[in-house]
Protein backbone atom coordinates (compact mmCIF):
# COMPACT_ATOMS: atom_id res chain seq x y z
CA UNK A 1 0.00 0.00 0.00
CA UNK A 2 1.38 3.39 -0.97
CA UNK A 3 -0.35 5.17 1.92
CA UNK A 4 -1.99 3.64 5.02
CA UNK A 5 -5.45 4.85 4.02
CA UNK A 6 -8.48 3.00 2.73
CA UNK A 7 -10.78 5.42 0.90
CA UNK A 8 -14.45 4.76 1.70
CA UNK A 9 -16.55 5.98 -1.23
CA UNK A 10 -20.06 5.67 0.20
CA UNK A 11 -22.63 6.89 -2.32
CA UNK A 12 -20.31 6.65 -5.33
CA UNK A 13 -22.04 6.08 -8.67
CA UNK A 14 -20.57 4.19 -11.63
CA UNK A 15 -20.56 7.42 -13.62
CA UNK A 16 -18.08 8.97 -11.18
CA UNK A 17 -16.13 5.85 -10.26
CA UNK A 18 -13.23 6.11 -12.70
CA UNK A 19 -12.59 9.83 -12.27
CA UNK A 20 -12.75 9.68 -8.47
CA UNK A 21 -10.70 6.49 -8.37
CA UNK A 22 -8.01 8.01 -10.58
CA UNK A 23 -7.88 11.12 -8.40
CA UNK A 24 -7.25 8.97 -5.32
CA UNK A 25 -4.59 6.85 -7.02
CA UNK A 26 -2.80 9.95 -8.32
CA UNK A 27 -2.74 11.25 -4.73
CA UNK A 28 -1.14 8.06 -3.43
CA UNK A 29 -4.23 6.34 -2.01
CA UNK A 30 -4.48 2.96 -3.69
CA UNK A 31 -6.99 1.06 -1.52
CA UNK A 32 -10.53 1.93 -2.44
CA UNK A 33 -13.73 0.63 -0.87
CA UNK A 34 -17.22 1.06 -2.36
CA UNK A 35 -19.82 0.30 0.33
CA UNK A 36 -22.55 -2.04 -0.88
CA UNK A 37 -25.25 0.44 0.16
CA UNK A 38 -24.04 2.79 -2.61
CA UNK A 39 -25.89 3.07 -5.94
CA UNK A 40 -24.97 0.10 -8.18
CA UNK A 41 -21.81 -0.64 -6.17
CA UNK A 42 -20.85 -3.79 -8.05
CA UNK A 43 -20.69 -1.90 -11.33
CA UNK A 44 -18.43 0.75 -9.75
CA UNK A 45 -16.22 -2.03 -8.39
CA UNK A 46 -16.15 -3.77 -11.76
CA UNK A 47 -15.20 -0.58 -13.60
CA UNK A 48 -12.41 0.33 -11.20
CA UNK A 49 -11.10 -3.22 -10.84
CA UNK A 50 -10.75 -3.46 -14.61
CA UNK A 51 -9.33 0.01 -15.22
CA UNK A 52 -6.97 0.12 -12.24
CA UNK A 53 -5.70 -3.47 -12.28
CA UNK A 54 -2.15 -3.46 -10.94
CA UNK A 55 -2.50 0.12 -9.67
CA UNK A 56 -4.96 -0.23 -6.81
CA UNK A 57 -6.83 -2.72 -4.66
CA UNK A 58 -10.56 -2.21 -5.14
CA UNK A 59 -13.14 -3.75 -2.87
CA UNK A 60 -16.44 -3.42 -1.11
CA UNK A 61 -17.55 -2.17 2.26
CA UNK A 62 -20.61 -2.91 4.37
CA UNK A 63 -20.28 -6.56 3.33
CA UNK A 64 -22.59 -8.56 5.58
CA UNK A 65 -23.16 -11.97 3.97
CA UNK A 66 -21.34 -14.81 2.23
CA UNK A 67 -23.47 -14.07 -0.84
CA UNK A 68 -22.18 -10.49 -0.85
CA UNK A 69 -18.61 -11.79 -0.85
CA UNK A 70 -19.33 -13.92 -3.92
CA UNK A 71 -20.88 -10.99 -5.78
CA UNK A 72 -17.95 -8.71 -5.00
CA UNK A 73 -15.46 -11.38 -6.08
CA UNK A 74 -17.35 -11.88 -9.34
CA UNK A 75 -17.15 -8.13 -9.97
CA UNK A 76 -13.37 -8.24 -9.61
CA UNK A 77 -13.14 -6.89 -6.08
CA UNK A 78 -10.11 -7.95 -4.05
CA UNK A 79 -10.93 -6.53 -0.61
CA UNK A 80 -13.88 -7.13 1.72
CA UNK A 81 -14.59 -4.66 4.53
CA UNK A 82 -17.39 -5.19 7.04
CA UNK A 83 -18.77 -3.20 9.98
CA UNK A 84 -18.94 -6.38 12.06
CA UNK A 85 -17.16 -9.66 12.77
CA UNK A 86 -18.84 -12.54 10.95
CA UNK A 87 -16.55 -15.59 10.84
CA UNK A 88 -18.45 -17.08 7.88
CA UNK A 89 -17.91 -13.92 5.83
CA UNK A 90 -14.24 -13.81 6.79
CA UNK A 91 -13.64 -17.47 5.92
CA UNK A 92 -15.42 -17.15 2.56
CA UNK A 93 -13.43 -14.00 1.78
CA UNK A 94 -10.15 -15.75 2.45
CA UNK A 95 -11.26 -18.91 0.62
CA UNK A 96 -11.69 -16.77 -2.47
CA UNK A 97 -8.24 -15.24 -2.04
CA UNK A 98 -9.51 -11.77 -1.10
CA UNK A 99 -8.33 -9.49 1.70
CA UNK A 100 -10.60 -9.40 4.76
CA UNK A 101 -11.03 -6.39 7.07
CA UNK A 102 -13.87 -7.08 9.52
CA UNK A 103 -15.15 -4.52 12.00
CA UNK A 104 -14.14 -5.10 15.62
CA UNK A 105 -14.72 -3.28 18.90
CA UNK A 106 -13.79 -5.79 21.61
CA UNK A 107 -10.96 -8.23 22.28
CA UNK A 108 -13.40 -11.10 21.76
CA UNK A 109 -14.27 -9.84 18.28
CA UNK A 110 -10.62 -9.23 17.44
CA UNK A 111 -9.58 -12.76 18.25
CA UNK A 112 -12.64 -14.30 16.58
CA UNK A 113 -11.76 -12.36 13.42
CA UNK A 114 -8.10 -13.41 13.56
CA UNK A 115 -9.05 -17.05 14.11
CA UNK A 116 -11.33 -16.91 11.06
CA UNK A 117 -8.42 -15.61 8.95
CA UNK A 118 -8.84 -11.82 8.82
CA UNK A 119 -6.12 -9.97 6.92
CA UNK A 120 -6.44 -6.98 9.24
CA UNK A 121 -8.90 -5.48 11.71
CA UNK A 122 -11.15 -2.43 11.38
CA UNK A 123 -11.64 -0.75 14.77
CA UNK A 124 -15.11 0.72 14.33
CA UNK A 125 -16.36 3.16 15.38
CA UNK A 126 -12.89 4.23 16.40
CA UNK A 127 -13.92 7.53 17.96
CA UNK A 128 -16.25 5.67 20.31
CA UNK A 129 -13.65 3.03 21.16
CA UNK A 130 -11.02 5.67 21.86
CA UNK A 131 -7.25 5.65 21.97
CA UNK A 132 -7.17 3.83 25.31
CA UNK A 133 -9.10 0.88 23.89
CA UNK A 134 -6.70 0.59 20.97
CA UNK A 135 -3.68 0.73 23.26
CA UNK A 136 -5.14 -2.03 25.44
CA UNK A 137 -5.98 -4.18 22.41
CA UNK A 138 -2.53 -3.74 20.89
CA UNK A 139 -0.98 -5.05 24.09
CA UNK A 140 -2.59 -8.45 23.49
CA UNK A 141 -3.03 -8.66 19.71
CA UNK A 142 -0.45 -10.41 17.51
CA UNK A 143 2.18 -7.93 16.33
CA UNK A 144 1.67 -8.90 12.69
CA UNK A 145 -2.05 -8.06 12.56
CA UNK A 146 -2.84 -4.56 11.28
CA UNK A 147 -5.50 -2.42 12.90
CA UNK A 148 -7.22 0.32 10.90
CA UNK A 149 -9.04 3.05 12.83
CA UNK A 150 -12.32 3.93 11.12
CA UNK A 151 -14.89 6.49 12.21
CA UNK A 152 -14.05 9.93 13.57
CA UNK A 153 -10.40 9.86 12.54
CA UNK A 154 -8.66 12.41 10.38
CA UNK A 155 -5.57 14.58 9.89
CA UNK A 156 -5.97 16.29 13.27
CA UNK A 157 -5.52 13.01 15.16
CA UNK A 158 -3.56 10.72 12.81
CA UNK A 159 -0.46 10.99 14.98
CA UNK A 160 -2.38 10.09 18.16
CA UNK A 161 -3.85 6.97 16.56
CA UNK A 162 -0.49 5.87 15.20
CA UNK A 163 1.02 6.33 18.66
CA UNK A 164 -1.74 4.18 20.14
CA UNK A 165 -0.97 1.36 17.71
CA UNK A 166 -3.01 1.90 14.54
CA UNK A 167 -1.37 0.93 11.25
CA UNK A 168 -3.79 2.86 9.06
CA UNK A 169 -7.17 4.49 8.62
CA UNK A 170 -10.43 4.15 6.76
CA UNK A 171 -11.55 7.61 5.65
CA UNK A 172 -15.06 8.28 4.39
CA UNK A 173 -16.99 11.55 4.31
CA UNK A 174 -14.00 13.79 4.98
CA UNK A 175 -12.52 12.42 1.75
CA UNK A 176 -15.59 11.84 -0.41
CA UNK A 177 -19.26 12.79 -0.30
CA UNK A 178 -21.76 11.82 -3.03
CA UNK A 179 -21.54 14.24 -5.91
CA UNK A 180 -18.04 15.51 -5.11
CA UNK A 181 -15.96 16.17 -8.20
CA UNK A 182 -12.71 14.35 -8.84
CA UNK A 183 -10.90 17.67 -8.37
CA UNK A 184 -12.36 18.14 -4.89
CA UNK A 185 -11.51 14.57 -3.94
CA UNK A 186 -7.95 14.99 -5.26
CA UNK A 187 -7.44 18.12 -3.15
CA UNK A 188 -8.71 16.41 0.01
CA UNK A 189 -6.68 13.29 -0.69
CA UNK A 190 -3.47 15.28 -1.13
CA UNK A 191 -4.14 17.13 2.14
CA UNK A 192 -4.89 13.83 3.89
CA UNK A 193 -1.66 12.22 2.66
CA UNK A 194 0.36 15.32 3.59
CA UNK A 195 -1.01 15.12 7.15
CA UNK A 196 0.28 11.58 7.71
CA UNK A 197 3.24 11.48 10.11
CA UNK A 198 6.56 11.05 8.30
In terms of structural class, how would the helical and strand content be classed? alpha/beta
Radius of gyration: 16 Å
Largest sheet: 9 strands, parallel
- What is the topology, as strand order, of the major beta sheet? 5-4-3-2-1-9-8-7-6
What name goes with the CATH superfamily?
A: Aldolase class I
Mean pLDDT: 97
Q: Which fold name corresponds to the CATH topology?
A: TIM Barrel
Q: Estimate percent helicity.
A: 40-55%
CATH class: Alpha Beta
Residue stretches low in confidence (pLDDT < 50, at least 5 long) are none
The rounded distance between the terminal residues' Cα atoms is: 15 Å
Number of strands: 9
Just name the CATH architecture.
Answer: Alpha-Beta Barrel
Shape: globular
Strand content: 15-25%
Number of helices: 8
Protein model, in words:
This protein has one domain: TIM Barrel, CATH 3.20.20. Strands 5-4-3-2-1-9-8-7-6 form a 9-stranded parallel sheet. 44% of the residues lie in helices and 18% in strands. Helix 1 (14-26) crosses helix 2, helix 1 (14-26) runs parallel beside helix 8 (182-195) and helix 4 (87-95) runs parallel beside helix 5 (107-116). It is globular and about 45 Å long. It is built from 8 helices and 9 strands. The chain has 198 residues and is α/β, with parallel strands linked by helices.
Keywords:
alpha/beta, 8 helices, 198 residues, globular, TIM Barrel, nine-stranded parallel β-sheet
